[in-house]
Design brief:
Order of helices and strands: EEEEEEEEEE
Oligomer: single chain
Strand order of the largest sheet: 2-10-9-4-5-6
Strand content: over 45%
Structural class: mainly beta
Length: 114
């Protein structure tokens, strides 16, 4: 069972990044999935979730209208498109089932700075 996040990096305020999370070792297409983040010195914050079939998605108020979660069940992958990034989006981003039930991956660092 494994979750591998990728796609993080350095972005300027107002910029965009697309995160990917490759899942393996479990039946991906029966799980709702989510993204969460942890900023330096802060706790884990849930960011977005998506139904197992991708038919609906839901977002934290802090990212609504800027982030889009999606999934490709044929590739066992969930994505997070992040637009109009802000410095307060700086964090390590993690994916997991929703609610979390899979061993956490290593996450991917997102830094938003000019």
């Amino acid at each position: 069972v494994q979750l591998v996040e990728s796609g993080g990096g350095l972005a300027q305020p107002g910029g965009s990044l697309r995160l990917s999370c490759a899942a393996s070792g479990f039946t991906f297409n029966v799980y709702a999935m989510s993204w969460a983040r942890q900023a330096p010195g802060k706790g884990l914050e849930w960011v977005a979730g998506i139904y197992s079939d991708g038919s609906d998605a839901y977002y934290a108020d802090s990212v609504k209208g800027r982030f889009t979660i999606s999934r490709d069940n044929s590739k066992n992958t969930v994505y997070l498109q992040m637009n109009n990034l802000k410095p307060e989006d700086t964090a390590v981003y993690y994916c997991n089932a929703d609610p979390p039930s899979i061993r956490w991956g290593q996450g991917t660092q997102v830094t938003v700075s000019s």
